[in-house]
Amino acid sequence: MSEAKRFIKSGILLTAVGLAMRTVAMFFGAFISRTVGAEGMGLYTLIMTVYSFAVTFATSGISLTVTRLVASAIGEGKHGDVGGVLRGAFIFSFAFGLSATVGMFFGADILGGVVLADDRTVGSLRILAFSLLPCALSSALSGYFVGVKRVGFNAVVSVFCQLCRIILTVALVRRFAQHGIVSAVSGLCIGMTLTEILGFILILIEMIYDRAKHRVKGKSTAKIGQICGTALPLAFSAYVRSLLLNVEHILIPKKLQQGGESSSEAYAHYGTLHGMALPLIIYPMSPLSSFAGLLVPEFAEDLSAGRMQRMSRIATKAINTTLSYAVICAVFLSAFSEELGYVIYDSYDAGYYIATLALVVPIMYLDHVTDSMLKGIGEQMFSMWVNITDSLLSVFLVWALIPKMGIMGYAVVIVIMEGYNFLLSFLRLRKKVEFKIKPVYSIFIPLAVSVVATLISDRIFIFCGSTAKPIWLTLKIAFALCVTVFTLSINKIRMEFCAKRRIKSKATGGV
Hints:
Layout: H1 3-59, H2 62-75, H3 81-106, H4 108-115, H5 122-129, H6 132-147, H7 152-176, H8 181-213, H9 224-258, H10 263-282, H11 286-305, H12 308-335, H13 337-345, H14 348-357, H15 361-376, H16 380-405, H17 407-432, H18 439-460, H19 470-507
């Protein structure tokens, strides 16, 4: 199978799996929000801020490190080094994962009672501590499978674990919810921990089988120095940014209360924007995330082999495709925001926040793809400083804007900082890799087509009203999407036909 076909096949597989998982996760989140309420979602989201930092420390950039080193070794023809990279990554992950587990379990009282200033979070933090070691080890093994471009089993494990998590969590939350919000959130954390353990066991079994099947003669030593040299700059960046994100998210409820809201209102508004609206904004990014993740080993291999022209072609295609897709997503999210908020979360407030954040979707999605390409060409240090300054400015803006603007101040912070991060990353990529942007075909045509499609759909389904049932909203969005895809496909065929005619005309001397 050719490299292009393998890339597309892997991307489609990961996209299908990612969309399925995010769809299920979104509706699962809707179930959780309806069960524990907006305040419960706010409490859970707050716990996740500390947990995300613990996961950041446990993984310490190991997944991307393994992907880049494995891909570079293959690109240079040093297949024997892959085993050494994997052994070094396993030692690295075990050390950091175990340290994170011990630190979070024994430090839960301080983290919950002092840092989060809410004793209700202590028990859940202790439960989540047991997921950190398997999470770290799974991250290393996942990076290996992406690096060798065998992502099929990763996808299967992800789907299976997600299903197990949902089944476990639904059962636990329903059982614990009758004892209050704290117990319900604990049920969520137990389900997450058990799922991480199961996922590690499955991917470890597959790694052992895969290495036996593709083993190269000879044995290389564990590449600890190489792993540390690549992972630690990534880890430092991730530590600082995650720490600042923790400060930012801990500040949000406090600053909302400082602005005059009660504790319950602050958690509810925070949970609605960050726990409901933002996941829906990120949901359509699944296809981009799948292909963007595959760009890292592609660019790493091309850089090692000196294939700069191929990198330029891929970058041009990736950026223009991302722009087209993101513009369409932004229009759809904005046009159907009210219905989405009501149907999925039973919340008009969520719909209002969705419409607000839809404005930043093109920048957010393009920044994600741009960042992946920068990582593929070894620009980790630049990304590190961009992320750190981004987080520092975010903390300042949260501190300054939320007491005056309420939760909408946080939405403004998201918009400003996405633009800042994207601008710096985009300019950096432009210096390193040549690419062309075609605004007519990647921005204006998709914008016009998607706007017209949503207006037509709205007129056709006007009898359903803005608070339609899920089936009518699904049909409404599906119709608009079909109109958009059909129109853009016809336009692409027309453009290709015209291009062929021009080429033929030149070849025949214009006769």
